[in-house]
Amino acid sequence: MQHTSFDLQLLNTCAAILLLLSFAMLAQRRIVTLVNLLALQGAMLFIATMLLAWRTGQNHLYVSAALTLGLKVVALPWLLHVLIRRLDVQWDSEPLLNVPGTMLVGLVTVVFSFGLAQPIAELASTATRNSLGIAVAVILLAFITMITRRKAMSQVVGFLSMENGLFFGAMSATYGMPMIVEFGVALDVLVAMLVLGVFFFQIREQFDSLDLQNLESLKEDQ
Amino acid sequence: MSTVGWLTQFLEVLAALVLAPLFLGWVNACRAWLQNRRAPSVLLPYHGIRKLFHKDAVIAESASPLFRLAPYVVFGAMVAAAAVIPSMGTGLPFRSAADAIALVGLLAIARVFMSLAAMDIGTAFGTLGARRDMMIGFLAEPALLMVIFVASLISATTALPLIAERLVVQPLALYPSLAFTAVAFTMVLLAENARIPVDNPATHLELTMIHEAMLLEYSARHLALMEWAAALKLFNYACIGFALFIPWGASIGETGISALALSIPALLAKLGVAGLWLALLETVSAKLRVFRAPEFMATAFMFAVLGLLVHLLLGA
Amino acid sequence: MAPIDSPLTLCLALLACWALAGAAGLLRPNSVALVGRALFPLGAVIGVGLAIVAAVSLNEPVERATLLIGLPDLPMHVRLDNLSRVFLVLLGSASAGVSLFAAGYFRKGEGTAPGVLGLEYHLFLASMGFVLVADDAYAFMVAWETMALTSYFLVTAQHGIPEIRSAGFLYLLMAHVGAIAILLSFGILQGGTWLFSFDAMRASTLSTPWATAAFLLALFGFGAKAGLLPLHVWLPEAHPAAPSPVSALMSGVMLKTAVYGVLRVTFDLIGDPLWWWGLIPLALGLATALFGVVFAAVQTDMKRLLAYSSVENIGVLFTGIGLAIVFNGVGMTELAALALIAVLYHSLNHAFMKSLLFLGTGAVLHATGERNLGRLGGLIHRMPWVAWLTLVGVLAIAGLPPLNGFVSEWLLLQTFLFAHEVPQPFVNMLLPLGAAIVALAAALAGYVMVKFFGIVFLGQPREPSLAVAHDVDGFEKAGLVWLAIGCVLLGLLPNQVIHALGAATVQLVGTAPDLAGQSWWMLAPLAERDVSYAPLVLLAVIVAVVAATFLIVRVVYRRPVRRAPTWDCGFGRLDPRMQDTAEGFGQPIRHIFVSFFEMERELPSPLDLAPRYRVTVSDRFWKGVYLPIAALLQRAANSVAWLQQGRISVYLTYSFITLVVLLAVML
To answer: What is the interface pTM, i.e. ipTM, of the complex?
Structure first.
């Protein structure tokens, strides 16, 4: 292995841990742990952004890192925990079908993402271009997490994880998005969270549970 | 092969035979200490083995010659494995006899013969234990092979001494792929050596036994050999882990007596820390239901494959 | 015409001797003494002779000849090259052991007369040999058909039983479906010259679509014969239905002729296979391997278990073939050679291991009359020779060092190790996962074999009738010993075997592993990768440790051994029914791999006064693929059936219309 500088090794490690956390979310049954894993993902993103800011000297990345810390590590997980307690679902355990099968699908997705990202990474000019494959993998794994879940809370966590992956991808390919875009995305996510929170209360009032299979009963009979 | 090489070889086998029960005793002592109990002496396994050798062997009437042969074969396979693992040094004369895949094969010989011996008597518990042990085994083997694969990708060989040698000369850096494989290896170690969370080595309830159920009919010297072989297996796995992930301290290549002499305290230190770490893992985990064990092994396999993919992508 | 003492002539003469030995059995068809004591051992000797001739002539140049049998303008060409020689060694040596066993096995009064069985058996052997030396499509197809027909008659030897008849029918059907595909493949390969000799096919160049079509057809046809997914359904029916020596030959040798066929068509006739072709046998092989071994784990019939295990090994072989094609296509010929060595070695190993196991089951079947695992047990006490020799086969097929199964598995895994160097983007990451599947299949094979050996030979007898089981003697013992020694030698001397197999890979891909300068007892096929394996050293170490431990324990601690009733945790009333059943031992696999199976369950309710528990595990492919195809064919046939009106006037009308149409067209 060629000798890489220490900060680049740390960045690689952060990327690898990010991937690992996405897999862990795929197989996690308890909602409280899911939210904590999401917070950890945010923490990894924060560390990676700080390292990148220190390495490249671009000051807007410091702001981006602070935003990540504030939003993804503190605010959103706190909001989700409050929501969980209000909805009284903290002890719920999700029935997951066929965990080894889902892991296998996840692995194939990772291979696909890595293969896909390799030629694109050749074109990028950043030092962290190899992590683009990991970013794509995180996005796709979050998507699979959303697909295999039935409870509304877990699907929201999957959605937020997808946004984490997007953020990481932008960072590794182009050293972050323009600040205005980042602010806009952050605001969007915040608003989406608030709206979803309101919807959860409505769903629970209607069906007495947050199991999204109940929504299927809204389908018209043909 | 030089005399230092033969000396290393001889010392390694001797160390394996002598230190394995001590390692087991150390792990038990650490576990007791972590659980706020008074630990038995670390020399207790020695007393146990010696006591068993002094007893008359009682063999079931329905046992076949395979039953009496199995403990010797299992013990022989474990000693042969110990001869090939570079616990003290990598300049072993026997290193060309077996690479890591053959090593996994040697461990499989022990597992198969133990299962066959358990089925030989024809009791319900024996066959139950055999079935469960083979189930854990067939899931652990691909995970272990993937771990070896990843290590061999980095070192371009599957020979364990060479993997150790090539890792030692790498610059000190963070390798996420190795970290993932180390986690996978730890999980495989827990499963194959019948530790919590896969199996409880101290259980007395037959329905929860996996490894112990296969030893139920053995007594005296046969049981002593099987227990010694089990301790050797744990020792071997620990040394494989050291060779794959923390090879510093072992004498590398064809070096002199001083390097060999230094490797002995290095090995003892590594074993001490490993025993403590193992006891810690056992203390914080609960035993899994039997059919959650495949999920456990699938997770280990997934860690190993992730390590492989991360290595292929990031080059680290 | 080649000189009289050339290896090719000798081989042809030996094949003819087989046919004659078979025909001699017709002189006195019901005489067990003549057929058993004289003809089958003669067949064994011919087999050994064939193996020796082929082995000795291994590095000599290619020999060709034209036989004057066949049609007037279409003589049969034969050719002896290294690939044929390797497979002839396999045929001769493995069949020798099986013939020896068969000498003591076939008895009067079990369906077909022994003399007729002898004829079919030796014609089967001769036709397999002829397939291996055929050098044009005509000779190949004649030999292939003879092979299929003779094996059909052998499978239905006990034709009084309806299940055996239907198994034979399915076998014949699949064999012919495959044969049509092979014939079509040959049709494409001739590339417009309308000459069907293999030399013409080698010389012709095909465009990529046509070459791909030829390859796929050949893969389909030979895959149907080999038992590749999804064309495997006949294997678990036909192999158990046949008498055990025939099962051994079919599993051990006949499936390898399909492997020979794929290698011949891909590397020899097509010449330069494209790299991505290799992904198809690779994927199919991996799926077959996993499928086969998972199904083997849940079987309750010992011969079906072994049949599914054969499916698994065929999967492993096709995985190796796929790897070889991929490596060859991207230019990594040394690794392609290594993959091919793994394939050839595994073919040889499997011939010996599987034949040994099937013959063991044959001995058990003769002694006890039982095929059901739930009625066997504890036979190691009554049949020690069979048990210990079968143990050699069990350990070998489970892939344990230092026996032969491990060597081919080791070679295949080493080849997979370099798969990440293939310069194709997704492939280099997916191939190491294939290694994991091979490792999983190998580990499961160990599970299956522990189940097989443990339930049949160990434990306590599950039926009182097993007390009269008798051990083998004479010819049967000789056959088992021959095959067991073969397993051991193939495991302990891998260098010599690879040196011999390298001759074939030189012909196929151009290189062979460089073993020059290696010690004779150590296998190190890739010099620059620094890996090696020395089975003799391992065996010596293990034996030394076992002996030393035994002596030390005996000398230092001279404690006696006494026998006592089984401990069983103090339970006391130990009953043979308390052991694991075959279903019980397979239950973890059934639980973990539940999606592979089609299961029907009948569970008792708590209020049942006579509770019954029934589980039927069947193949998804049968219900999902074959039955719909059969229904479709039935409907198509039915829709045409209206043509059969039964009245003469209607048939005369058909002839009238045909005549009118022909007149109109011609004039």
So the answer is: 0.93
